[in-house]
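Weekly modeling sync, notes
Attendees: S.R. (lead), two postdocs, one rotation student

Agenda item 3: backlog of single-chain predictions. S.R. asked that every request posted to the team notebook include the full sequence so nobody has to chase files. The rotation student volunteered to paste the first one in as an example of the format we agreed on. Action items at the bottom.

Example entry:
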Amino acid sequence: MNHSSTDVSKQIARIWRGWTTKENAPALERVFRDNAIPGIELSKPKGLIGITLLTLERGSEVEFTTILYFDTLESVKAFAGDDYEKAHIDPAVQPLLLRYDKRVEHHMLKESRNWN
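Predicted structure, as returned to the notebook:
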């Protein structure tokens, strides 16, 4: 079995969630894939390690979760500003949302393994 483990003891996962209708989910996914994520990637914020986009269908809604991985909390603050827990919503995303987290959670990453 081939696996890798990375020292993640100081990494931060910046987690945000938003909900949309099943009908708007494909459009919202396109906005994330084609605009929001590439825009973040293009600006290359210092300390940003990666981005994950997750979806979960529940009844008539689809929950979207974004996780941005940073090397330190200081990098998160440099990216998000003084009120770093405030959610920053891409203007193209907001009209497609039913509701969303106004505050972002920051989790300390303790372990991460990938098997390729």
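Discussion: group reviewed the output briefly. Residues 18 and 100 are 4 Å apart (CA to CA).
Action items: rotation student to repeat for the remaining queue; S.R. to check formatting next week.
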